[in-house]
Structure formats: structure tokens, C-alpha cells
Amino acid sequence: MAAPGTGTTRRLVQYVVVRSDLVHTLSWPLGAVITQACHAATAAIHLNYDDPDTQEYLSELDSMHKVVLQAPDMVSLSSLSETLRDKGIAHKLWVEQPENIPTCLALKPYPKETVHPFLRKFKLFK
Questions:
Q1: Single pTM value for the model
Q2: Among 40, 44, 123, 121, which Cα is nearest to 83's?
Q3: Contacts 24+ apart (CB under 8 A), 27-32
């Protein structure tokens, strides 16, 4: 994953942000929450399949890098989605149906340094 002409390796990362209250407050089974993250990550890849960074990310199947972060609740997740949309950062907000509950979001793969500043307030999912 060397950047053209630089000889340095760039790290492509797919960030996934999951509502932690689903597990810790609303008592969703952990497997159900993991499923939500999988849906969002797959959808973000699908929606951005032709993107050069996505293609590069997929070409390195054995070294894909994902970071799973936690949003405390629906309001913070929705706010993040709005910020990302306003900044032109491609992502998929996963809304569980038929309940119509936003559960998580996933970004398309980006160089780590491109998106990180918008995600600083979110901690690793625990």
C-alpha cells in the first residue's frame, strides 16, 4: 500500500462506530450488535466499491485494518453521521429495520490520517 512516488506505506482503515448503549443500557445481545457492525461495514464497502481506496483495501484481504469505536447513544451517532456527510466523508449509517433504529455507521476505507480528526472523541468499543 505504498503511496505513489513516496515509497512509504499508507495505512487504509475502515472505521466502524457502534452505539455502546445497545449493549450496556438496552441489553442487546453482543452477537446482535456485532451483526449490526458487519452490516454497516459491508454496506459501506458495497456503496463505495469502485472507489480507488476501497479497491486497494480489498486487494489486501489478509491485512485489512478496521477500527471499531463506540458512540454513547443514538444522538451522538446521528450527529457524527451528519458531520461526516457535511464534510463529504463517505459512510453508511446502518438503520435496523423494521424498527428504524440507527445502530452504527461504517466509513469506506480511508487513509488513516484523512479521517482520524473527526473521530477523536470516540473511544475504542468495549
A1: 0.91
A2: 121
A3: none
Closest CA to 93 of 11, 12, 15, 23: 15
What does the CA dihedral 51, 56, 59, 60 come to, rounded to 10 degrees?
A: -140
Tens place of pLDDT per residue across the chain (126 aa): 455 555 456 899 999 999 999 999 999 999 999 999 999 999 999 999 999 999 999 999 999 999 999 999 999 999 999 999 999 999 999 999 999 999 999 999 999 888 878 899 999 999
Per the CB < 8 A criterion, the answer to whether 68 and 125 are in contact is yes
Cα(87)–Cα(115) distance, integer angstroms: 10
Query: Interior CA angle at 53 toward 105 and 123, to 5°?
Result: 35
Q: Which is nearest to 72 in space by CA: 15, 122, 9?
A: 122
DSSP 100: T
> Which one, of 53, 118, 40, 103, lies nearest residue 73 by Cα?
103
Please name every residue paired with 92 in a beta bridge, in sequence order, or none if there are none: 106
